[in-house]
Every structure is written in C-alpha cells, then in structure tokens.
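Q: Given only this backbone (873 positions), what sequence would you predict?
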C-alpha cells in the first residue's frame, strides 16, 4: 500500500462507494432486461454483490496501517479522557514536570562533567601527572621541574609530556591597564593536547629555549574583547609586564587548559638549572598515553621511575612518588561525586512522583470501572485496554517532560556557575542531544512506571460486579492493597531524601558557622601584581606598596590596609622548606615545609589575625635590620615540639645553603586558608621589606561600611601612584568566602529542594489514599455512627489505619537510609553519616506531616451524617 493511498483514504472510499453503486445499478438494469421486476432485479443484484458496507470496510482497512490507526485512536481518546479531569491532569503534569526538571538539570551537570567530549584530540589518552607526597599532606602535589624532566626522559608509557606553570601579566598600552592570567607552557603542549590555534601558529622549539623570542598566544575571549577580533592582531606586538611580545596566534573559544579563564600562553623557557631543580614544586604536567597503554600501566611505570629517583636523589625525592589521573577525572575532581549523589537523589524523587501519580490513577479507577467493563463486554481485549491506559500515562508523562525540559533550562543556569572552570561549556545552555534524549527517555520511563500497575489492575475488572448498579463502589482488583504499598513506598523514599538533605544541610551550616580565622566583613580585596621589568628589585616594589598604603589609609571610611603575597582561599600552595637552628638535619622523609608569604605592617590587623605571643612587624623591621618572621600556631605545634619558638632561628632551604638566619619574633593564630574543610597548614610570614621570594600582590582594605563603596576610589589612588598598574580581583572578602562555600551550598540547596518536594508529594499521596478510603467506607462509618459509635472512635479507626502505613514506611526508610548513608560520609563536614539525632529529627518531621495528612480525612469522617451515609452510593 502506498502512503498516498493511506493519506487519501476518505477520497478512495468515496470512489469505491460510487463504483459499487454503479455496479449495483448496472446489474439491476441487466436483470430488468432479463424480465425481472425492478424490486426482484435489485434484490438479486444485491445478493450477487454482497454486503456493500462490509466491502467498503475491508477496502478501507486494506488502505490503513493497523497499529498506527488504533494508536491514533488511543491518543485522541486519551486526550479526551484527560480533558474531562482537568484537576488530575494538571496536577499530574505539574508533579512530573518538577521531577523531570530536577532530573534533567542534574543530568545536564553530569553531561558536562562526565559525558561531554573534551576539546582535545583523543582525550581518553590524556592524563595529568602528579607527585605523591602523602607523608607531608600532599597526596596530589604539583611536580618539580627536575622530576618532570626525569619522567619525560625515562617513561615507556607516554608518547610525550608537556608542562605548564601559572603566570600573571600586566597588559599595558591597549586601553586601560589590565591584569591577565597567563600560562607558561612547553612548546609541545598543543601537540600533546591535539589542539591548534584558530589563527596563527603554536610555539616552536626555538621559542621555548631560554632567551628565546618573546611570543604570545591569546585566548579567543581576550582577542575579541580587548582587540576587537581584529585578524591583524596576529603579528602585532603588545606590552606585557613592561616587555614587548609578538602575538603569533589565537586559541579556540574557551580553550579549557588549564582553565577556561586563562587569558594567554607564553613559552615557559625552562633553563638547565630549572630542569635539575627538584625542590620547587610549581609545574602542572600532562601526558599523552601510547596507544593501548592503560592508566594502571602508566602508573606502574611512573612508580618505577619514582623509586629510581628516590635512590638517586635521596635528599629531595626519598618520599616523592608519582602517578597519573585521566584528564576528565582530574578536571572533575570532587564535583563528580557531588553530581553522582544528586543523580541518585533525583532518581528517588522520580520514583516518589511515579508512586504518587500511580496512587491517584488507582483512585480514579473506581469511576472508570463501568466504562472499562463495558468496553471489555463489547469485545475489547485486555491488551487493548492496557494499551489505552498506558497511552494516557505516556501522554501525561510526555507533557510533564516537555514542561520539565523548559524548567531545566532555568535550573541549569542557576547551578552552572558551580561547574569547575576546567570544563568547556559551549553556549552554556545545558541542552544538547544527550540531554534531549535523556529528558524524552525519562518521560517515557516514568509514564511506563506509574502507568503500568494501574493499567494491569484496571484490565482485570470483574465484569459482573462492575456492570451492576453501584458496582463502582467496590475495589479494583486489589487496588486498595496496592495503594497502601505505594503509600509505604512514598514514606520510605521521602524519609531517605529528607535524611540526606538534613545531613548535607547540617554539614553546610557547620561549615558556614566555622570561624575561618580571618576577617571577612567590611574587607575589600584587590590584586596588583607588579611586573618585574617595571619593578626590578625589592626597593622599587616597597616604594610602590608604601605609596599605595599611605594614600589608601588616608581615605575617609578606611580603617586599615595591608598587602600580602596571597590572601586566604586564593592560593593553595606556595610552600617553602626550612630548618631550625640547633635541630639535627631532618631525615629525607621528614622534610620541613611551610606556606610562605610576605606582608606589610598592618596586614595582620586588617585581616583580623590574633597575636598569640611576641610581636608583629613594625618599623624596626627594615631592609637592613635582622631578618625576622612571624609563624602561626600550626607551625609551632608541628615543628617545635612544645618549645617556645620566640627568639629561635630558622633558615630557608637546607643547611648547605648560604642564606641568613631568620629570628622568630611572634606567633599568630591559625586560619583556614586552604579551604574551610581543610585543617590549618604551617605558615611563616616575613616583612615585605626583607623577603622578596613571594612579593606581595593582594591588597586587603578594612572599611567602616560596605567595602565595594570604596572600590572605585581606591583604584584611583593606586593609579595615582602608577597609572599603568593593572588592578584585578576587586571584590569583598565575603564574596570570596561564599565562592569557597559554593559546592557545599549547591549540594545542600538542591537536596533540600528535593526533600521539600518529597515531603509535599508524600503528604499528598497519603491524603489522597486516606480521603479515598473514607469515601469508600462512608456507608460503614454511617452505620457505625447510627449504632452509637462516638466520633472519637471513628477518628481513631481511620487515623490508626493511616498511621500504621506511615509507621511501616518510616521503619523501612530508616533501615534503607542507614544502609545508604555511608555514601554521603565523605561529603559531610563534622557530621556523622549515622547521626542518630538527625535520623530521629527527620523521621519526626515526616511523621508530623504524614499524621496531618491522615488527620484531615479522618476528621472529615467524624462529620458524616448517618442518614446521608446510609443512602450513599
């Protein structure tokens, strides 16, 4: 059969009708000519032709696609049926839309983190390589250049390795001065990653040699925003840190290595002495595995090299291991676990929504028993009834899925800001083919889940009882028992979600309430990284800091200001080895290291660090005076073994280095600068006039009010000192703290939202079942009251039945939650996964909500008029 005939069946039927009529007329005429009467002639012609209606139906069905024809009938009937119950229809669509929106939003995150192709050639063969210094608290340490060189030369698992380091650049002479985040990269970085510039070319080996030409690759965003996407930019010279660099190319949009907010790349130009340095750990290393080599094989290879280096260089490498991580796994970090937990949570939420709607569909079943029984009596098969009911369920779920997909676009925009910047997010819409397929698949699956059980129950309708007058008052194939099972399931699933959300919320609240050890209120931070070519020595830099601080602290509303190498929560490294005068040289596996920073005199006061003993820096600590240091309590506890550190001397580096001894003059309180969930690290601070290894770059300003009010004025004061000095990272310290809390906040907010929705769905499901039960037992209740039953006894009867279901659901939910709570253990902070008070509190909240949902129908049952109830059908 042709599609043309299928779509023109009505016209084809009319033509066949005319042909049959013409044949009948011709045959009648011939019979009359044979001598028959007109009536006999027509009757004979009709007997010869047969049943014209049946012939037309057979021809019509010959031109039909049977399954599609009946499916279209089912779809139209489903929409008519749903239109007759607008309250049920819109409520079901709303519930499904919320559940599918939550699932699609979380899947959009998972898609970016775990599924979306990374913009590298054959990204599955890329791995990031780290040092393992677990004994010092660095299980994933940035490699030293000497170790990188050894790995690259001695490995048998990688085609090639490349290294990068973070740099900072001041762009001058192209409009306002601008601070840029840059990367120094080995020339082979882009060939290892398999990425080419969209304009120009990558670095050459000669450009990566010490003293080689100054060249730069720009990010697409910098090229467009700063240079107007001018193709002529390639080949131009730009001023970076006071030196001229030639632009040789532009990288693809939002190129994510190492992060999507990198502005430019320059050759790293490692010197021979750099490649022999195993004491400074500042590189990031990426390698491309050989074809057929697994990550486990590569790790075994790196372990062999690390052991060889520990024997060859015991002073620096005795406790240093090496391992690699697939680049996607490295980029996702702990966020991957968060997404997996959220996916599990929305799975529970969808099951809860399905149970809720299945309950409502079973409640609707009584009103449709006679209709379905009549269809069965007229010859409809049980399979056809099931298909019809599943079509209604799928219509609901697809409508809910369409609305949910639209809601997920909004939801993704809310949560996408928490996606690590190591991922490429094109367009940042959260929707691609995988997300669309997921939304459609989830919609169909939920429709089948909540529709199958009611469909099977309804298709078993007892024809005799259903067709009797009042038969609709009975139950549908055991649906009462089924609804109770669904209620128990809803309570159990709701409790599991509520417990997970409670644990995460309690953890987040404890983290937020934690004293970070530094002041965040009324503090403004700005970054002014000084270019070495423009500020070649410590004298020039000190003059800049002094001039800026003098001008800023004179501003009305400014309490104090101080410079530091890096503010807390802005850098997660910067360690330096040291030795203590009078102590024996540390063993190779007992390397002493602490975070190091240079600070100006008022920094401690501005940031709110408390002096524990001794003194902080003052005007006595000049460039020509005895070198001094202030250490924190964590350093004293770890390295001084209960001794008073005041007056003791330390030396940076090791005994063999000819550097001056430094006197410890003060001890300050600890701060959580490596993250709020990370313990304080040993730290030593030096006066900005004496130590230039980590020159100050972050300015903290303590104000009397909202700090951003002074931002523009402070920027003008800095530019008054140096009009070409770029300023970046202008924000309140509060915002910095909120950023560090971001992933915890996301988990807590989403899980609490899921739990609130679960509570709502569970209460609606319990209420619906109890209301239906009361309606079913109206005659029984009326009879009891007519025989003298008190309203209180009726209340206990109805309420008790509902609370039994709730209690059973709570017991099952508590047992399941206790078994699954360990999956959240590593995501919690200062909270036990099996915290009994949290379990009891969550169960109590759910029990109260469920009891209220039971009490309302039970209370209504006590108001039944016995006379009306006895007449009730």
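A: Predicted residues:
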């Amino acid at each position: 059969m042709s599609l043309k005939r299928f779509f023109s069946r009505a016209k084809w039927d009319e033509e066949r009708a005319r042909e049959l009529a013409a044949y009948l007329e011709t045959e009648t005429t011939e019979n009359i000519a044979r001598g028959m009467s007109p009536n006999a002639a027509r009757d004979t012609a009709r007997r010869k032709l047969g049943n014209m209606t049946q012939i037309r139906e057979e021809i019509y069905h010959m031109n039909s696609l049977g399954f599609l024809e009946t499916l279209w009938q089912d779809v139209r009937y489903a929409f008519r049926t749903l239109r007759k119950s607008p309250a049920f229809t819109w409520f079901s669509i709303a519930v499904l839309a919320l559940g599918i929106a939550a699932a699609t939003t979380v899947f959009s995150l998972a898609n970016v983190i775990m599924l979306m192709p990374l913009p590298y050639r054959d990204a599955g063969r890329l791995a990031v390589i780290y040092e393992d210094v677990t004994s010092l608290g660095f299980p994933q340490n940035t490699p030293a250049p000497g170790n990188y060189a050894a790995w690259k030369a001695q490995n048998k698992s990688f085609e090639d390795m490349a290294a990068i380091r973070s740099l900072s650049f001041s762009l001058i002479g192209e409009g306002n001065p601008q601070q840029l985040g840059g990367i120094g990269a080995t020339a082979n970085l882009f060939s290892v990653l398999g990425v080419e510039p969209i304009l120009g070319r990558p670095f050459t080996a000669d450009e990566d040699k010490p003293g080689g030409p100054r060249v730069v690759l720009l990010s697409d965003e910098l090229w467009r925003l700063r240079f107007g996407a001018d193709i002529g930019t390639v080949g131009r010279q730009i001023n970076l840190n006071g030196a001229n660099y030639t632009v040789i190319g532009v990288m693809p949009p939002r190129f994510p290595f190492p992060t999507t907010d990198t502005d430019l790349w320059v050759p790293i130009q490692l010197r021979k002495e750099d490649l022999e340095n195993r004491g400074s750990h500042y590189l990031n290393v990426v390698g491309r595995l050989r074809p057929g080599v697994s990550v486990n094989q590569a790790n075994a290879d790196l372990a062999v090299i690390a052991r060889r280096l520990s024997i060859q260089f015991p002073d620096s490498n005795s406790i240093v291991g090496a391992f690699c991580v697939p680049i996607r796994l490295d980029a996702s970090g702990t966020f991957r676990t968060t997404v997996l937990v959220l996916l599990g949570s929305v799975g529970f939420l969808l099951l809860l929504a399905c149970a809720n709607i299945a309950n409502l569909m079973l409640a609707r079943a009584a009103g449709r028993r006679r209709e379905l029984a009549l269809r069965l009596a007229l010859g409809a098969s049980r399979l056809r009834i099931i298909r019809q009911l599943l079509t209604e369920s799928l219509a609901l779920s697809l409508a809910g899925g369409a609305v949910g997909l639209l809601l997920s676009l909004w939801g993704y925009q809310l949560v996408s800001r928490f996606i690590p910047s190591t991922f490429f997010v094109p367009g940042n819409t959260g929707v691609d083919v995988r997300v669309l397929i997921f939304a459609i698949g989830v919609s169909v699956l939920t429709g089948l889940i909540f529709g199958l059980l009611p469909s099977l129950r309804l298709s078993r309708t007892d024809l005799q009882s259903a067709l009797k007058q009042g038969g609709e008052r009975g139950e549908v194939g055991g649906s009462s028992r089924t609804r109770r099972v669904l209620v128990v399931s809803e309570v159990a699933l709701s409790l599991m979600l509520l417990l997970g959300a409670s644990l995460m919320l309690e953890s987040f609240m404890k983290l937020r309430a934690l004293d970070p050890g530094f002041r965040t209120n009324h503090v403004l931070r700005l970054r002014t990284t000084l270019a070495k070519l423009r500020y070649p020595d410590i004298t020039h830099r000190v003059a800049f800091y002094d001039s800026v601080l003098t001008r800023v602290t004179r501003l009305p509303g400014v309490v104090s200001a101080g410079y530091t190498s890096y503010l807390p929560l802005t850098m997660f490294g910067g360690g330096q080895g040291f030795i203590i005068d009078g102590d024996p040289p540390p063993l190779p596996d007992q390397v002493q290291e602490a975070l190091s920073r240079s600070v100006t005199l008022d920094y401690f006061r501005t940031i709110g660090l408390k002096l524990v003993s001794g003194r902080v820096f003052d005007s006595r600590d000049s460039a020509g005076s005895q070198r001094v240091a202030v250490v924190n309590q964590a350093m004293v506890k770890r390295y001084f073994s209960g001794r008073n550190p005041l007056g003791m001397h330390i030396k940076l580096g090791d005994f063999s280095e000819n550097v001056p001894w430094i006197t410890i003059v003060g001890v300050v309180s600890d701060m959580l600068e490596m993250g709020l969930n990370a313990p304080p690290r040993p730290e030593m601070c030096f006066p900005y006039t004496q130590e230039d290894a980590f020159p100050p770059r972050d300015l903290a300003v303590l104000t009397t009010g909202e700090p951003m009010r002074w931002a523009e004025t402070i920027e003008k004061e800095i530019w008054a000192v140096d009009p070409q000095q770029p300023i970046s990272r202008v924000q309140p310290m509060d915002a910095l703290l909120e950023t560090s809390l971001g992933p915890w906040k996301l988990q807590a907010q989403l899980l609490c939202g899921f739990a609130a929705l679960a509570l709502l769905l569970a209460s609606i499901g319990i209420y619906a079942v109890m209301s239906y039960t009361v309606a079913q037992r109206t005659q029984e209740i009326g009879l009891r009251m007519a025989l003298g039953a008190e309203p209180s006894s009726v209340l206990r009867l109805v309420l008790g039945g509902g609370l039994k279901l709730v209690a059973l659901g709570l017991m099952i939910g508590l047992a399941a939650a206790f078994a699954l709570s360990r999956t959240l253990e590593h995501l919690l902070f200062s909270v036990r996964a099996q915290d009994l008070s949290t379990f009891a509190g969550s169960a109590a909240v759910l029990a109260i909500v469920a009891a209220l949902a039971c009490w309302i129908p039970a209370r209504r049952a006590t108001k039944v008029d016995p006379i009306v109830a006895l007449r009730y059908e």
